[in-house]
Amino acid sequence: MRRTLTLAILLAAVPGGLSGQLAPDTPRLMSPNGPGGLAVLWVQPDALPGDEKAIVATWTPPGSPGLRLRGGIGVGAEDDEAFLAALDIQTSIARRGTLPFDLDWQAGAGVGFGSHLLLTVPVGVTAGTSWSSGSVWMGPYVSVGLAADLHLGDDFEGDEFEVGPALDIGLDLALDDARHAVIRAAASLGDRQTLAVGLAIGGGARTR
Fold this sequence. Notes:
Elements: H1 2-12, E1 37-45, E2 53-60, E3 67-75, E4 81-94, E5 102-113, E6 117-128, E7 131-133, E8 136-152, E9 161-174, E10 181-189, E11 194-201
Antiparallel strand pairs: 1-2, 1-11, 2-3, 3-4, 4-5, 5-6, 6-8, 7-8, 8-9, 9-10, 10-11
């Protein structure tokens, strides 16, 4: 309940005359070594016309490192509000030793509500590694895949169904041994350009 109230307060703080549109999957921040818990991020999207800014939260349920929920609110076209909700799924393919990096398969489903309805199904792989020195830990990663978008509604100008490449790069950084707080930064490149920066708390580093 406390986490829910905190998230509601943060989302309510987004300025503007908040029905634009937001892509629900950019960036996805799917690192093989990423933190669990609750993360709140400032997002600057540019995947759809008129995207401006958003606050997005992700939450990994306890005991479910391969499952994550995502939700957010932001400003889309014509300074109108837009919402997103998504489910992320991630599972290990190989760990370091077999390969020089950790490799995960990832997929999911998301929906954006705004000037029209956007349904998105992303699939791909994500590769990453991690280093630590004393209390400092960092984990860079890159994700590649495809995203299938279905646009429903009369206000979208373009094709109703699109499939395109998706490329994300990201870095997680922690300054404490237990990694109770992890700084998260990521960018989506290409047609789904988006920048996200935020903080994950309460989850520590994910180990599998």
